[in-house]
User: Fold these one by one.
Assistant:
Number 1:
Amino acid sequence: MSRAPKPRRGRPSWRQLVALLLGAMLLATACSSGGGDKKGGSSGGGTGGGTGGATAGGGSPSPTVDPARVTITPVDQAQGVEVTSTVHVEIGPEDKLDSLKVINARGEEVDGGLDGDGKTWKPKQPFTFGSEYTVNAVASNKVGQKTPSTTKFTTVTNDKKITASFFPENGSTVGVGQPVSITFNAPVKDKAAVEKALSVTATPAIEGSWHWFGTQRVDYRPKDYWPVNTSVKVDLNLRGIDAGNGAKFEQFKSFTFKVSSSKTVSVVDVNTKTMKVYKNDQMVKEIPVTTGEVPAYATWGGKMVVQEKYEKTRMNSQTVGLGSEYDINDVPWATRITTSGTFVHGNYWSDAASTFGKQNVSHGCISMTPDNAKWFYDNAASPGDIVEVVNAKEDVVAADNGYGDWNLSWDAWTAGSAAKA
């Protein structure tokens, strides 16, 4: 009997291979469905460098938190910034400004602070002309991530400067009649702007006002003489103020002075040819004097203020427009009370018995014996002490001739204020 033939083991066909592969893939997909994320795999990913991603339970991706937004003005590398500028920082609505510092060219932090809105930083005093400043700001977003920001700016240069000088001197003690006097080295066109940058603080407080004499001098005085023992602080907040002609101030400073504990007023009567010296309204001495010869050299009338004094000085008539009338090298105990040249001084060249208290023979000054002049010099001639001439045969001294400020009524005085006009 014949044996049936064995079948051949051939290789699977390509159709069979494809069918096998497809089946394996379907099986793998069915096994892994819904389970991959539990092992931390990412099913999609978020923006911002992968900070989003899937939640632990396989939910929706969390939102991206943007860094804090910081915008600083003046902008980086700004040039010609006004010295009166502020620094403004704008941040995002949900951001917080953590710190803001301004550093000068010497690496020092500039004194200043943020105002009420928390966005505007103001220096305690204006910036310096022609200087570079660095602004360092740090802000944080709502999740606390901090964003630092740094900018630099340079202030405008000041090629046309204007300066102010002042009296009384810082730290000095003066008499009750001493005004605050500010003089400028160039004309001031915008008087109101300059005046508003000046302030006077008296302790105890007292009513006072500024008054302009022309365009280069402004004085401040109270309505009445300063009370004794008053402390006065004057602020010249002028830096960056335009005087109105293209010239800007650079000064930003304060000075203080004290009013004497004694109110000293010396009253000269041209008719009686006497000087009566009062301390705190009590007469302490009467001195025989001679005043200006009438009518040629009559002494100014009104209230004058002691400006300066010399133990000995030269007096030459040519310096006050009187030709060659006199030239005395050693006039003793001389106290100036007007800019035009009125002095209280000692007189050794006249006969005392027939002159002082007897006749008016001077060239406009108030003179007395050297001994009496020294007493006056020592006791009644501090800067700011008052000398008042009554019954004068001459006009009242001009308010700007020295410190004749007190010869103006209060209404006339306050009318000279540019800020109140």
Number 2:
Amino acid sequence: MSTASEKQTLRQQMRSARRALSPHQQRQNARLLCRSVESQLWFQQAKSIALYLPNDGEIDTGPLIQLCWLSGKKVFLPRLHPTAKHRLIFVPYTAQSKMRLNCYQIPEPMIQGLKPRPAWALSLVMFPLVAFDQKGGRLGMGGGYYDRTFSFKHLPKGMNSTKLIGLAHDIQKVDSLPTESWDIPLQGIATDKDYYPC
């Protein structure tokens, strides 16, 4: 079996598993995730934090976003880059933000009057994944958006201060993931059950 077909099979299995969680389980997992992240020093020290709005059974970041706002942290959401293919920019997000659906039907903030922040200028980025292993391997949806956006992390003296943390339901953990040279490893994964430093 090729790496590409292995990844596709695993994507289907994990997406089905997270979509099968009941609304009650989703809410409970979101609260537990928030508690897990709140206790981490890297979260407490971060000033500018990129998160995401959940889609397709991804673990809900609503409680985390609320916690960030209450703690005086600046929250950013990803938005498809208007000119660079398969890349993201990060737009400030507040309770008053105007939203629109992108081509994947995922809500993203409108830019008008706001100054997007480049990925390297964020203290902390917490993003979704389909599956993960404890070595920092992440399986995404397959579009390569996060890998391209954070490719600066491969540079020997790149702007490496941005901390990359994956967020997931603990059921998305696997023993090992096939990786490619362009995959950006995570520095940790937070779930409803635990925090896995990498």
Number 3:
Amino acid sequence: MKKLLLSSIAVSFLMAPTLFADEEYNHFPALQATDTSVAICNLNNFNAKLQAILNKPQIEVEDMVKVHELTYTLENAVQRLQQDLVVIADDLERAHKASESLQQDVLRTSSNAYLSALELLLQPKECKS
């Protein structure tokens, strides 16, 4: 009986946004990804939580609600990385074109910007818990 009640509440909660799509509703609170390092830490921490749920033999309704909650922070982190990758790609393209046109200053500036930004993605960072 308890599982049925919890399931009904969870399903009602998950369906509420579609029932009131025209009205503004509150989402779960999400951590913002204010910079690349924060985004990576959020991905590491929240991916571990997601993986722990996925490792369960049976995913309960409560787990699905938890995944729903986790995805808000994960989406913010992924969006931040998408923005960062656009800038990284632009810097790399500028370096590429500068190498074709023999523009040493542009090549150096763009390449350094590319390497600095990419280092944040490739080097493991210490995350605050």
Number 4:
Amino acid sequence: MSSTPSIPVVDVSPAFGDDPAALAACVAQLRHALTEVGFLQVVGHRVDPAVVDAAYAAMDRIAEMPEAERRALVRPRASSRGLFEEIDERGRVLNRALQFMKYDDLAAAEADDAVGGHPDYFVPNVWPEQLPGFRTTWKAYDAATRSLASTLMGLFALAMGLPRHFFAEPFSKDVTLFSVNLYPPQPVDDDYHEEVILNPHADSGGLTVLHQRGSYEGLQVRDAAAGWVTVPLREDAFVINIGHLMSRWTNGRFPATVHRVVAGPDTSAQRQSIAMFFLPNIDQVVAPVETMVGAEGARYLPITAYDWQEQFMKEYVLVNSYAEPVG
């Protein structure tokens, strides 16, 4: 399979300007991409490349840590905090990921009045405090990509026939999660075929903002007609995809598209990615909006972000874990 232009690329710079015609054209492109694919790449996003470079440099520092220090960061995968390693049945590390949340701990969430009656959700982040500036680097990346996500949600609202500010309140105390992923080189057999190193799944939240780098193109999106479609590597672009909660808001009209990651074609192939999962306020009730419900009626019952995320994580960890994380 080769890279294909079927993953739409949308220039979102009109979102930052004052040209109504350009904005309308941008929204129309987004609507088409979200309806037909559920995946796209955005350029013209105004995220400083230096912020992205600093984030990848911080990732490299994790890889360079002594093994004992890195092991101290390991937490159970279901917590979505700290370091975990995806281990296959042969004992190979398929993915090493550091995960953290917008709020460092329960106290930070309480200070922002974001707890919403669910203190158990706010598990403390696990930071490598021995790495100076590490947390500051990620807070800068957090701010930049959440700003982009908020801008995109405004465009999505317009694409849904809603006021641009519709999602401002539902995401005013967002509980966004980050996953910083390193897919190390894998052994390759003589009869190489695309080996899946992150199982097929769809994401849970409002939208996902992903940046990717590497020596090969490993992210693939499932298309009903074309099978698995490879997402090209573009340094100037963020990959955007719809999560289940946004799909519920749209009554399924914007699909949460299934995707996976495959290993590279040789033993030097390596991939890195930074995923930001933009999640609404923890007590936000999500239900199909009137503008997206046709004669068929609402396909989904209302559910809170907390209840959905709890359900999703149980299913996701069960489906995607090859083994318990080490540590």
